[in-house]
Amino acid sequence: MVYEADANGKVLNGSLEELNDYVSKGHTVRVGWAMGSIFHWADAMFLTQYEGHVFAQIHSIFMQLPSPSGSKGDAEIKMPNKDPNGWTAILGTTGGMAMKWNGLNLKWDKEKHKTEEEFQDFMRKVENSRTHTKWVVVL
């Protein structure tokens, strides 16, 4: 791991300068990010260096959700939708995460959000959130 930052972009491990150097030299980068209690990893398919930071766009993936462990303690990951859908994100060494999705049929849940406007506000906040990231260079 070359670099790790918390959701506010504070360095936890490694060197941002070293990561930038690897990116400048064209090395392949993998990025990991936290979503709740799960840590995801993906190849960075499009990298941007801006104001000393690195931003990675990942390929669209199908939505998956953890399934609670059964009595045997077997963790599972399932695809909740019957039809394929897409989710993508741009992750930054700043801790920023911009997300977009297509075909997820995200609908207003009256039990979670009192009004549809409150739901739309929640979705705007989710689309631009913050997360703990880890950056690995493939040599």
- Largest sheet, if any? 5 strands, antiparallel
Compute the number of structural domains: 1
Uncertain segments of ≥5 residues (pLDDT<50)? Answer: none
Strand arrangement across the biggest beta sheet: 2-1-12-3-4
Number of strands: 12
Radius of gyration from the alpha-carbon trace, in angstroms: 17 Å
Output mean pLDDT.
87
Ends apart, CA distance between termini:
11 Å
* SSE pattern, N- to C-terminal: EEHEEEEEEEEHEE
The fraction of residues in strands falls at 35-45%
Helix content: 10-25%
- Shape summary: globular
The assigned structural class equals alpha+beta
Number of helices: 2
Give a brief outline of the structure.
The protein has helices at 16-24, 116-127; strands spanning 3-5, 11-14, 28-35, 38-43, 46-50, 53-57, 65-67, 76-78, 86-92, 96-102, 128-130, 133-138. The chain has 139 residues and is of the alpha+beta class. The termini are close together.
List the helices and strands and how they pair.
Blueprint: E1 3-5, E2 11-14, H1 16-24, E3 28-35, E4 38-43, E5 46-50, E6 53-57, E7 65-67, E8 76-78, E9 86-92, E10 96-102, H2 116-127, E11 128-130, E12 133-138
Antiparallel strand pairs: 1-2, 1-12, 3-4, 3-12, 5-6, 6-9, 7-8, 9-10, 10-11
